[in-house]
Design a protein that fits this description.
single chain; about 280 residues; mainly alpha; transmembrane helix; Beta-lactamase_Reg; membrane
Length: about 280
Amino acid sequence: MALFSLLIAILVERLKLLPQSWQFDSLMSHYHPLLFGDKQLQSGLMMLIAMSLPTVGAVVLLWVIEGWLWGGVTLFVWLFTAILCFCHQQQRQAFKAYIQAACRGDVQACYHFANELDSSICIDSTSEDELGELAGKSAAWINYRFYGAVALYLMALGPVGIVFYCTVRFYAEYAQRKEIELPLVKSVLHILDWIPSRIVSFGYVLSGEFAPALTVWRKKVLSVTLPARELVIDVAVSAEDLPEVSSAPVCLRPTLALLQLSKRNFMLLVTSLSLLTIFGVVS
C-alpha cells in the first residue's frame, strides 16, 4: 500500500494534477490562523498541540475507517494523504522561473526567484557568479526536504508519519518567513530529519562521485548536532564535479549539475524502496 501510494503521488505531482490550493502547505495556511495565532504559539504546550493535532486527526480517521469496503477506504486515505503531502507546485514554479530568468540574463529576477525558492538562505551578499551554485544547493536541499524525507516517512510510518513531518516542516517554514521564533519546532524538526537526511545524503554518495562524497559523509554522519541542511548540501556538492562558471550573467551549469544529481538520487531512493517492498523488508 505504501509503495503504491508513493508511486501514484509521484505521478500526480509530475502531471501537476492537484491544484495548489489543495496542497498540504496551502491547507495548513488556512488551518493555522483558523485555530491558532502567532501569540498563542509562543507557548510550548500550544505549539505542541498545533503540531500534533493534524496527526491525531489522521490516526483517528484511519482507526474509524479500518476495514471499510474491505480496506478500500483506507487505501483511498493513504493515496489522498500521499498526494496532498507530495505535491509542491510552488517550489517547481519558482525553480522554473529562476531558470527562465537566467536564460534571458535577467539578474535581478534570478535573485528574486532564488530567494523565493529557498527563503532560508541570504542571497543579498551573494555574487552573480556564486548564484548558480547556490541555486543548485537549494535544489539538492528541496529534493530532500519536500520529496526524499516525505517518501521515507510514508514508507516507514504511513499517512501518520508524513502528516506529522509535513506539519512540523510547515511551522518551520512559517517561522522563517515571518521571522519569528516558535518553541519546539526547530528541535522536533531536527530530530525528524536526523535519520532521513543520513539516508538521502548517502544516496548522493551512490549517485555521484563516490570517493569524495563518501569521505564527507563519513566525517559528518554521526554528528548529533549537525543540521540536516548542511549534511545534505555538503555531500551533494562533494558528489558532483561542478563545471566551471561560464561568462553568462548567471551561470546555470552548477545549478543544472546539482539538479540532475538530485533527480538521480531520488530515482535511486524510489528504486531502493521498491526493492525493499518486493522483498518484504517494508510493507
